[in-house]
Here is the input.
Amino acid sequence: MEFPGSHILSVNQFSREDVEYIFQVADSMQPYANRERITKVLDGAILGNMFFEPSTRTRVSFGCAFNLLGGHVRETTDVKSSSLTKGESLYDTARVISGYSDVVVMRHPQSGSVGEFAKASRVPVINGGDGPNEHPSQAVLDLYTIRKELHSQNRSINGMKIAMVGDLKHGRTVHSLSQLLLLYDDLKIRLISPAELRMPESIVDILKQKGHEVLETEDMESELAGNDILYLTRIQEERFASKEEADSYRGRFRLNQAIYTRYCEPNTVIMHPLPRDSRAEANELDNDLNQNPGLAIFRQTDNGVLVRMALFALILDVVHKIDDTSSDVGWYTERRFQ
Ligand code: NCD
Here is the structure.
């Protein structure tokens, strides 16, 4: 795809070459994200960071990524404090906000809303999650993490075995990640969820059409063996009609060190888009895994900054200018490398 000036709304926009290029640019962001170097390449640029649903990582890492490139961030984090509650349309909001920004990141509870916003926007828009539909930047950072984790074990994405676990019906991260997996070959994909929360049939169908081996099951423990990657997800309680309904699925799938030791290969990589639901009734990813070297969840969050820096650099067309305005960091940074 042609990155400069483009919206990033769906992973379906990306070819295999596009993804490889994003990874290459993300790798080059390492000295900046690690606070070895600073750059002012986006000095004066403004990111409109519009989050109309709860978010910690996505919102803050997009903001940090923009700051690390020297740009400024303006945030709107609540529908209640924006004019959308006064009946303003997404069209009008987009016309206005895009006049104040050079690029917009938006998260919104409705599927398709970010695409609708983008149509009216005068600047590029990145989808930070539109309801249960898509979360493209998360999928790219997940795939970037998978690649790095497997490369460190001399393995590759082609031919890998991955299990996705949890609320596969509402989880936009697994919807986007699954569609990115269409760019690779010969995968073994285990979709582990309650029967009512299965991956949408349309996605299962395209994975099978691609030639991947797909198995859907409700039994996690019998499908843990032999996976390269375990990708757990949270029950997306905000998508259910009632809290009681969400509660009925909470805690159905739990991974802890004892289960990992019993069923998984010792180097199995554990991922989760986060937040993990650590309440006792859910505890989907136990804290006793925190010292497990295969637990990649915080490497995932760190990688999110690199990937989001890469997306900004690509769509604002500064990839080749970053080093021109760079210098060494002048403050104490040692703790970051422990
Ligand atoms: C996810 C999301 O918002 O879709 N979080 C994230 O962006 N890392 C997953 C979730 O909320 O469960």
User: Anything to note?
Assistant: The chain has a mean pLDDT of 95.
